[in-house]
Amino acid sequence: MIKFFAGPVAGISIGLNFVQTLGLTVAGMMTTVLIISSVGQAWALHQRRRRQAKGKPVFTKRSRNIVRFFRRFGMPGIAFLTPILFSPIGGTVIATQLHVPRLRIFLHMFWSAMFWGVAMTTLTIRFSHLPFFHR
After folding, report:
1. N or C: the chain end with fewer CB closer than 10 Å?
2. Where would I find the H helices in 14-101?
3. Which residues contact 62 (CB under 8 A, 6 or more apart)?
4. Torsion of CA 90, 88, 128, 132, to 10 degrees
5. What H or E segment, with its residue span, contains residue 57?
6. Residues 6+ apart with CB under 8 A from 94
7. φ, ψ for residue 86 (rounded to 5)?
8. What is the pLDDT of residues 29-59, one digit of tens each?
9. What angle do CA 86, 33, 2 make, to 5 degrees?
C-alpha cells in the first residue's frame, strides 16, 4: 500500500500470476486512497493550524509548485504521477488538500492504478528471469 512498485515484484516473486498480481497491486493502492481520503480533510486542517501556530508560512515553494502543476494538469496529472512519483499516500494527500471531491480522487486514482499496475506487472514478468526474483 505504501510503495506501488513493490506490489508487482512481491506478487511475481511468490508465484502469483498476472491477474492476481495486478488485482492485489490495484487493491493495495485503492485501499490507501480510500483510507487517506476519508481522514484527509481533517488531517489537512490540523496541519494548516499547526503551521500557523508555529508562525510558518502557509504557502511554501513546494506547495506553490504543486498548485501550479495542479492548475496545469488537474487531477488526471496528479493521479498519473501518484504511483511512480508521489506514492499512493502522497498523491491522495495532495488531492485532498487541493479540495478535490473524494469520488473524483477515487476514480482518477483507480484508472492510474490500473494503467501503472498493468505496466509494472508486465515489466516485472518480462524481467522475472533475473536473479533478484529468485532469492
Report:
1. C
2. 18-53, 61-81, 87-97
3. none
4. 40
5. none
6. 66, 70, 78, 86
7. -90, -25
8. 999 999 999 887 787 778 778 888 888 877 7
9. 50
